[in-house]
Amino acid sequence: MIELIKKNIKRKIEQTYQLDQVIVEEPKRGAADIAIPLFNLAKEWKMNPKLVFDKIKDDVLVDHVKEIEFTNGFLNIYLERKELSEQILHNVFEKQSHYGDQLLEEKSSIVMDYSSPNIAKSFGVGHLRSTMIGNSIQLIYKKLGYQTVAVNHLGDWGTQFGKMIVAYQKWGSKEEVQKNPIAEMQKLYVKFHDEEKNDDSLEQQARDVFKKLEDGDQVYTELWSWFKDESLKEFMQMYDLLNVSFDYFTGESFYNGKMDAVVDELEEKNLLKVDQGATIVDLGDDMPPALIKRSDGATLYITRDIAAILYRYHTYDATKLLYVVGNEQQLHFKQLKKVTDLMGYHFDIEHINFGLVLVDGKKMSTRGGKFKRLEEVIDQAILLAKEAIMSKNPDLKNQDEVAKAVAIGAIIYNDLKNDKHLDVDFDLENMLKFEGQTGPYLQYSSVRIESILRGYDVDLSLVDSNVFMQDHYFEIVKSLAQFPNILHRAKELSSPSVISKYVMSLAQAFNSFYGKERLIVEDQGVLHANLLFARSIQIVINESLRLLGIKSLKEM
């Protein structure tokens, strides 16, 4: 509603005076509800800001504007609070979890590629970022009316599987792998790289094995299938735990039979060159060439990604393709975009890049054996969460279920509260605190409202809306009104941290409010105004948590 008022004011000024980009904002500080900085207009019209104010002041008097004033170069606008608060709170309360939903006239199909762990390796803490950032962005797009296709592009192809097969045949044991598949495969992978330091021939052996795998060698194909099946069992357990789902698990191997067509098309369009035996696409002086085929004829990662893009756009009728992949792959996606542009497609491709997960300030590495399995970390977090919950509420029912929700929520929020481009420090003790900017703090804020309102139902006919005219009420009402705009901003920036920061600010505002104001009072008009107010806050907190992939709770 407030966003609509801002748009009406902006449109009216721009149309009246034939202007572009008039700034109409909600100031972070100060008493005004809406402000227009007049400095640019003063410069353009060559007049004092006060004279600009006098010139345009009548044009801002749209519905719900109560008063305006000139202060320090700004046109400050004060809104009519009572009726506006009624409309905003009724809208939240009536729509419940659908508050902020959008229906699009045309169903735009967004294909999202995220998580994408490598088979034959454990699902580690390092996989969390792509998984949870991608999951949240997909939920945001869905809420805004888009049709999404969630693809898990498993890392199930490439030279690394030549390495795995070589390691297994040299040092592995079928019995040991059957006992503990992922741990044993990972041990073999680490051993390969340790041995490679003293044996230069291992790398070439792995390349040769992968080329035979790509050509359909039966023995190697059976080993590869076994490694993949065992890996998927662990991955699915983790996705169930994190409440993350995908529409398709089409990994790199899915495109093995589709790459000849890509190479043929590149050839037909005269884009291929042979350089020192390898087949490349020259991308100009500002970018390294895209390596399409090695000198032995084996395809590479970018070849498979080109095949994947063509398949996704044709199969899913995609209008946009999002890749949630780490910062270190920025060059790869620039090359991918450039190649497909040269092919004449000009697809809408967005690389949603993110920083590393650091443990004790250090990067994790499967190859070097520095690795934390996410399942073990979550188990540890659940134990710590349960200890904290039992100390606060020893009589709580479903302690195990609550502890799991708190632990996973803490881990997710610790990731998504950060700007995605930055590295994230993984510190369980800090992220599980019930104070500060943590997932448990947000879950507890919702539980607190639930406990306060338990046994009470909102009767809209009894609400005394005069209550909302007070500053400490209206500031939070304005925050609730921002939620739909927050969703659009999170989508535009492809950043769940926009929602994370917003919901934290909302929860902190409520807890500060509750420290000053009693909600359960005798006056029925004030009581039902408070019930509507608090329940609306809880609705937005819970929906924000859902969009982050975090479970809200009734008790904890």
Walk me through this protein's architecture.
The chain is α/β, with parallel strands linked by helices and 556 residues long. The chain has 3 domains: 2-79, Arginyl tRNA synthetase N-terminal domain (Gyrase A, domain 2, 2-Layer Sandwich), CATH 3.30.1360; 114-363, HUPs (Rossmann fold), CATH 3.40.50.620; 374-548, Orthogonal Bundle (Isoleucyl-tRNA Synthetase, Domain 1), CATH 1.10.730. The chain contains 21 helices and 13 strands. It has helices spanning 2-17, 39-45, 49-56, 81-95, 128-143, 159-171, 174-179, 181-196, 201-214, 218-242, 259-268, 301-315, 330-342, 374-392, 399-416, 428-431, 439-453, 471-481, 483-493, 497-514, 524-548; strands at 34-37, 65-71, 74-79, 109-113, 147-151, 272-275, 278-281, 290-293, 320-324, 349-352, 357-359, 362-363, 424-425. The strands form 4 sheets. It has a 4-stranded parallel β-sheet with strand order 5-4-9-10, with helices on both faces. Helix 6 crosses helix 9 and helix 20 runs antiparallel to helix 21. The radius of gyration is 28 Å and the shape is globular. The two termini are 34 Å apart.
Tally of discrete structural domains: 3
CATH architecture group name of the largest domain: 3-Layer(aba) Sandwich
- Oligomer state of the chains in this structure: single chain
C-alpha Rg, in Å? 28 Å
Could you give the count of β-strands?
A: 13
Structural class by sheet pairing and helices: alpha/beta
The low-pLDDT segments are: 366-371
- Largest sheet: number of strands, sense, barrel closure: 4 strands, parallel
CATH structural class of the largest domain: Alpha Beta
Shape: globular
User: At the third CATH level, what is the topology name of the largest domain?
Assistant: Rossmann fold
